Amino acid sequence: MTQPSVVVVGGGAAGMMAALSARRAGAQVTLLEPNEKLGRKLYITGKGRCNLTNNTTPEGVLNNVPRNGRFLYSAVTRFPPGAVMEFFENLGVPLKTERGGRVFPCSDRAADVIDALFFALKKEKVVLRHIRATGLELAGGKVTGVETEEGTLPAGAVILATGGLSYPATGSTGDGYRLAQAAGHTVIEPRPSLVPLEEKGDTCAKMQGLSLKNVTLTLKNQKKKVVFQEQGEMLFTHFGLSGPLVLSASAHGNWVKDQYTAVIDLKPALDEAKLEARILRDVAQAPNKAFHNFLEGLLPRLMVPVAGARAEIPPDLPVNAMTRGQRRRLMETMKGFAIPLAGTRPIKEAIITAGGVKTGEVDPKTMMSKKTAGLFLAGELLDVDAYTGGFNLQIAWCTGRVAGESAAQHCKEEGAT
Asked: With CB atoms counted within 10 Å of each terminal CB, which end of the chain scores lower, N or C?
């Protein structure tokens, strides 16, 4: 039996796509994945529903990539969201598009996406081995094989698609960084992205479990510069903030160097004049109502004591006794509820990893290493990450596709198939 010409290291989204693409392009392929099941991280994406791409244009994808988006231009153009959707529907996974362009399987089951990829790999006769890659065999400036726990596998091309460091229970061990460094690559220090945020103090803890909808979250650095602003949903937790808005905000901060404050507009549909008119109208309707009861008509109950203390208004004060200054503080509290932040939660709680292999050391048209011939890289291992909404999986699919097809082509040119 001849040895496969392409060895793919990592059986996640990018690795499965790379293996399938290389096989369909004519190469013999072996896929290495130490986990018993492929695509374990896919099971938990989109809350188990698998938000597998975003129904937008290539430009729409790149607009949602805060770092190194230009590097992805060729890959996203070559395998855009529309092509990704067609690919999965051809594998027998009917899709639907929801709010914000998010694409899910109609079944709402991530397992259907994983099963479709697994059966496609099986049908194409990709060799699957549940072993860990321990090193790369290098000679004369090129990769010649993959060292494993069970010996060395010769290879005409190797694709590293091992993921980052987020959700280590799914198999994200950081092995790929070590393998890439051994082949001469620079690894930008991995850090968490799309991750909950920790507060300074205990403001959020007092409102633990409270979910807010249709609020505007603004993230400001220590110079008061706005680095993120969006309307949506968020959640107070025992440690700070979570929820869709917060995860997106986390991708915008330089949490190593800078300090940030989250500012929540609790009434984004009302400007200050309209909010004041609403307050005055409510006061006129029940002038003797105690302030804390009055505030329950404006804010969720769990927020009432915290917001009242922020506005420095006694809870039992009759609302018709509020001074203009107290009313001003109440409006400022509701339009700009500020929470100083201590930083992010640990990387193991992040949805994705920012940082990774330096993109300047990888050919964006082929995903081949500029340091080691025959070595290709794909997915979260690269120093590219995006916001929520299916964009990170889109990156995995398109870089995996390009790496797989390019690896097969490299083997043909080298006579290694």
From this structure: N
